[in-house]
Amino acid sequence: MSDKVGQALPPAKPEPEKVRMATVWLDGCSGCHMSLLDTDERLIELAQRVTVVWGPLVDPKEFPKDVDVTLVEGAISSEEDLHRIKMVRARTKLLISLGDCAVTGNVPAMRNQFGPDAVLRRAYLENTALDPQIPREIVPPLLSAVRPVHEVVPVDVFIPGCPPSADLIFSVLSELVEGKAVNPAAKFG
Amino acid sequence: MSAKAPVRVKTLTIDGREVGAREDQTILEVATENGIFIPTLCDLPGLSTVGACRLCLVEVKGARGLLPACVTRVAEGMEVAVNSERLDRYRRGILELLFAERNHVCSVCVVNGHCDLQSLALRLGMTHVHFPYQYPRLPVDASHERFVVDHNRCILCARCVRVCDEIEGAHTWDIMSRGVDCRVITDLAQPWGKSESCTGCGKCVQVCPTGALSEKGKSVAEMSKRRQFLPYLTLMREGRR
Ligand code: SF4
Ligand code: SF4
Ligand code: SF4
Ligand code: FES
Predict the structure, then answer these.
(1) Is residue B200 lining ligand 2, measured as CB closer than 6 Å?
(2) Fold entry, domain B104-227
(3) Mean pLDDT of the region A32-55
(4) In CATH, what class is A19-110+146-177?
């Protein structure tokens, strides 16, 4: 077990440079992103110090090379999730697991008791009346088990909660941009 | 009333603080009396002690290894430490193992927000589980008219076993098998609804620290436990003896 008590961003660069932040949406319900948006007008405050360089609402198609902090929502469920998280980790200084799906596997991991085939059968065969078939192209292949992010790549900070509250997310982000070490406390669920 | 032997008093220190105790008290009881927090899960005042969860481990000077405070009697001159980095690490490790070995999905759990395990994880600063989650496939028995047992959430604290045996006098619950196969069972591993010994009193449901035992008809986060009855029942029972 690691005994780290907190994690800080590397010392800030000279003032005007902003923290390059990204957010990633893997197997989650988007609730954590909603909670991030729920910080409301405080987002404007944050925008003085942070540029969002990638995320579900940002244009560039490719994940940028040199990201200071990435918030990951969601568990690792598919081969695509696996591929993306590895790339994100390689290009991010500080990786944050945001919310219970990322931190524990949460609801997506409930399928681990039954396996991916049972899930696909249930979703695409048993509940469809018209021409039931399991899609092979649009849906990325599911992994045999859903895992929390830190079981796949090293994670620096954990923000539990389903979803984590906007206040908690905001306080973590503002402490990070001030260069403080963070180790948020919040209940699971 | 028969003449009792005088109660002997022992003095000991807890985290350097001098405290007095009756000789028949446990470290946990003395700590609690003095407002010193020791985390617990299986212990519940009013029930016998079993030392099942090991969360209450403390350091006792001169002892080999750590001792569970809930079953360790005080002794004269004992030097006890209840807060240390080592204890923090062990306690978090024990909690993490509890989370990893069954399926705890707090966000959709019937006791979300009212759970002893969940709140202890917060209090002890458990941010995530370092061990690989096991995701065992476990049953839910909803055969009882009014109650449900969900093995996904059971931490095997045996509170249900003790309250049913010691307070209700029915002894419906037991614990079966070993290691990861351990399960709580009703009667001889029959569905709870078929149990002939269960009186339907609901005491087990109320003392269960997690969402493993709950009342039917309660949805996510709706179940909170009522334990006020326990001290009264214990008092009444002791008075009868
Ligand atoms: S029993 Fe407690 S710890 Fe387990 S899922 Fe329910 S709320 Fe979470
Ligand atoms: S409802 Fe009462 S009698 Fe039945 S198992 Fe629970 S404690 Fe025992
Ligand atoms: S059912 Fe509840 S009270 Fe019984 S052993 Fe499991 S967690 Fe403890
Ligand atoms: S409270 Fe002491 S072992 Fe559980």
Answers:
(1) yes
(2) Alpha-Beta Plaits (3.30.70)
(3) 92
(4) alpha beta
